[in-house]
Amino acid sequence: MRSTPILLLIIVLISTIYGNNVTQNYTPIVMWHGMGDSCCFPFSLGSIKKLLERSLENKVYVTSLEIGGSYVRDYESGYFIHPDKQLQDACNQIANNKILSNGFNAIGFSQGSQFLRALVQRCPAAKVKNLISLGGQHQGVYGLPNCPSLTTKSCEYFREMLNYAAYTGWVQKRLVQATYWHDPMNENLYKSKSTFLAEINNERKINQKYIDRLQKLENFVMVKFWNDTIVQPVDTQWFGFYKPGSDSETLTMEESDIYTKDRLGLKKMKEDGKIKFIAVEGNHLQIKNDWFIANIIDVYLKN
Ligand SMILES: *[C@@H]1O[C@H](CO)[C@@H](O)[C@H](O)[C@H]1NC(C)=O
Ligand SMILES: *[C@@H]1O[C@H](CO)[C@@H](O)[C@H](O)[C@H]1NC(C)=O
């Protein structure tokens, strides 16, 4: 019995030394996974976390958001938890994490990129310095030619549902990808019915807070994968999209209404040199370690 307090003390000491209590020299990093992925699969974000830690001399705190409170819910969240709910969850996690209170760098993977941008816009506790978007869909998608990791059958089913019913209320509520489905042949329908993307892109009305909070970023880095077979159009990774009324001709960010009509403050960010476009050869999220170290870690995460 008498040994219990001593044992407790030892446990507390050990966890203080070996716990998440790294001596931090570098700005903490928050990651947000894409669909068909989870916070912590060892072969995906788990290995990126290790790469970040190794490259930053183990003097950095890296966390990968787990949405929904469990491993399984987190995996499902990429398809079935509405982005508004996911954002609320992420915002609470960040507000309650002292280590992040002085700011952090953020890395989004695929749809996690637009969710992190929305987090900057909506969540005052998220003081993001550099926002790295890896294959994000900032103006949405029109087509998911290849689904990652779902069986072909359910992938086909998803695509059909998105093609024919993306803007119906119940699909918008239940399927994450519908909330950023952007049909260029039906711009007005998209603007009125998209329950997520049209709102965060200020396409219905202007939310000045969104503009102001985005301006606080030091850099908004958008990485586009040239040979992407999952995201259509590839241009959305650089905040471009199909020209309204066309499903083949595309517009760059600077040619899009969001930019020319200055709905999101992107013009000011560009003038201030905060918007960085990076292109890399390869398919969706095919990230090579050497490339990632030289172009992302060394440039944007050594602060
Ligand atoms: C880390 O450990 C130090 C003591 O070594 C302690 O003062 C500090 O509060 C700890 N930080 C966290 C985040 O646990
Ligand atoms: C990837 O796309 C780029 C740009 O379109 C092209 O130049 C390159 O040849 C492509 N690479 C592969 C492996 O298909």
UniProtKB/TrEMBL annotation:
Keywords: Disulfide bond, Glycoprotein, Hydrolase, Signal
A cellular component annotation (GO) from this entry: lysosome
EC class (word): hydrolase
Catalytic activity, EC: 3.1.2.22
Signal peptide start-end: 1-19
Catalyzed reaction equations: S-hexadecanoyl-L-cysteinyl-[protein] + H2O = L-cysteinyl-[protein] + hexadecanoate + H(+)
Pfam families listed in its UniProt record: Palm_thioest
A single MF term (Gene Ontology): palmitoyl-(protein) hydrolase activity
Gene Ontology BP annotations: receptor-mediated endocytosis
Family designation: Belongs to the palmitoyl-protein thioesterase family.
Name the record gives this protein: Palmitoyl-protein thioesterase 1
Organism name: Polypedilum vanderplanki (Sleeping chironomid midge)
